[in-house]
Inverse folding.
């Protein structure tokens, strides 16, 4: 496993040790025993990333595009109104869980045509007497993308049903939705969050504040350290035009500026999830249809593509059957059709190349890269932070045992582990609090792992840079940022950020060979 700059030696092992000691001391207490068992499990399980956002933000479609398989229902059925956990499993299965621990197997139906999966929740045979309300679903699926990451699909935060919206709140900001007696042990169920935005309104900002450092922190509930924003359904921002993603990128830049100034997101990426998933599952028949459409005069095809309904009309003369045209419109959208036809006109000659080009233009590859840098390469730190936060909550809520002596150490780790400090700072680099020139800000972002945690990436050097060159660069960075931290005009936040950069450079230096 990669050694990470900023990680305390064996942070996961240390978290395991502390949780184990607490479990032994509180073994006779049923409630803390159960909480600590879950805490220990989180350290051994894959990283948990939650997809959140307003109603119809495209969470399930994005999940399918990230996994590259059609495993998440996207229609507005009951299964999209409950929290659903997608884990790796050797064989596909879907299980419904009730609040009291009862379970029931769920029948999975696959619709015809372009319709994907549906989870049938109408007839559940619980493994206990009486019918129950579904608390959450667990999907196990043999998808490589789930081997190291569990993805949690959540209901829309702006659902007309308050109870549906509260399901997401309970997962990500549980303290704000509990009685006072329970708030002290409320811990988010996810280690990191991808928040989907179609627009940026007050409701989005309020929810992100509760997830991160805003209202929830004031209530004593620490949210996940990692939050990345996605301008979802990006192709719709430009009304399906060929330049839609350029418009979406402008919107993402504006959203990023607003969110980064408040410290609520570490990055904001535009993604056309529908196009990304369609590209990942492109069929030869669809490629042939695009190839035929590429031969249609530009003006004639543009007229046909004024709307999805017009494009699929039988009386519109095109060299593709109306049924297949309707399928293309549903799977790719008008933007995807225009993009595919344009790429073929520009020289794409096979379905594999077209799929790769569409995937690249959808933005999903950029999102995957950001998720790897921000979450994947820091999985141990994110999981350890979640487990230690949970442990601190339990120890605070159940005092008076031998476990009390553990609390100072847990709090010290949460405050002092450098990797945690880096993650917190990444979300606040572009806030108005930090007074640094743009070039220094870019260097600081790189040093604390904003472009990757490998030493050469932190130092801004080629991968094949000689160890001596890397050492010289690291030493220079330590000196520079320690000097910046001591500048008499530096405010406290800027001074702390500079010290964090210096510690990151020192950590990098410690990883380089002599």
């Amino acid at each position: 496993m990669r050694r990470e700059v900023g990680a305390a030696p064996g942070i996961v092992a240390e978290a395991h040790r502390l949780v184990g000691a607490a479990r032994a001391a509180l073994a006779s207490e049923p409630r803390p025993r159960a909480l600590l068992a879950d805490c220990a499990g989180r350290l051994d399980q894959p990283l948990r990333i939650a997809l959140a956002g307003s109603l119809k933000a495209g969470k399930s479609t994005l999940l399918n595009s990230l996994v590259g398989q059609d495993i998440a229902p996207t229609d507005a059925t009951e299964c999209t109104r409950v929290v659903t956990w997608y884990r790796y499993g050797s064989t596909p299965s879907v299980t419904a869980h009730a609040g009291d621990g009862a379970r029931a197997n769920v029948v999975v139906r696959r619709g015809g045509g372009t319709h994907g999966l549906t989870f049938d929740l109408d007839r559940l045979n619980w493994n206990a007497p009486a019918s129950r309300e579904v608390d959450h679903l667990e999907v196990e699926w043999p998808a490589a993308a789930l081997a190291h990451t569990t993805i949690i699909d959540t209901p829309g935060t702006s659902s007309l049903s308050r109870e549906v919206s509260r399901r997401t709140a309970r997962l990500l900001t549980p303290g704000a939705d509990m009685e006072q007696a329970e708030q002290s042990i409320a811990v988010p169920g996810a280690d990191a969050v991808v928040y989907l935005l179609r627009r940026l309104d007050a409701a989005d900002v309020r929810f992100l504040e509760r997830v991160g450092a805003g209202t929830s922190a004031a209530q004593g509930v620490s949210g996940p350290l990692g939050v990345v924003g996605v301008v979802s359904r990006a192709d719709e921002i430009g009304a399906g035009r060929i330049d839609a993603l350029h418009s979406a990128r402008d919107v993402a830049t504006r959203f990023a500026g607003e969110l980064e100034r408040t410290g609520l997101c570490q990055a904001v990426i535009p993604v056309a999830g529908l196009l990304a998933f369609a590209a990942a599952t492109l069929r030869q028949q669809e490629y042939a249809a695009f190839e035929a459409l590429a031969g249609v005069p530009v003006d004639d095809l543009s007229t046909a593509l004024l709307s999805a309904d017009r494009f699929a009309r039988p009386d519109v003369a095109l060299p593709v059957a109306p049924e297949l045209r309707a399928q293309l419109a549903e799977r790719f959208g008008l933007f995807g059709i225009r993009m595919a036809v344009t790429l073929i006109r520009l020289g794409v000659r096979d379905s594999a190349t077209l799929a790769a080009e569409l995937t690249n233009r959808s933005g999903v590859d950029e999102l995957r890269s950001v998720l790897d840098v921000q979450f994947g390469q820091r999985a141990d730190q994110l999981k350890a932070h979640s487990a230690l936060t949970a442990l601190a909550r339990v120890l605070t809520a159940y005092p008076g045992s031998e476990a009390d002596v553990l609390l100072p150490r847990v709090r010290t780790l949460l405050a002092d582990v450098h990797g945690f400090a880096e993650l917190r700072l990444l979300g606040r680099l572009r806030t108005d609090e930090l007074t640094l020139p743009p070039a220094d800000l870019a260097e600081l972002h790189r040093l604390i792992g904003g472009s990757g945690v490998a030493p050469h990436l932190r130092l801004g050097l080629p991968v094949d840079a000689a160890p001596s060159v890397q050492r010289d660069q690291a030493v220079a960075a330590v000196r520079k940022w320690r000097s910046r931290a001591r500048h008499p005009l530096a405010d406290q936040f800027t001074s702390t950020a500079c010290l964090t950069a210096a510690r990151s450079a020192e950590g990098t230096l410690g990883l380089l060979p002599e």
About this structure: Residues 322-345 form the longest helix (24 residues). Residues 177-184, 214-221 have pLDDT under 50 and may be disordered.
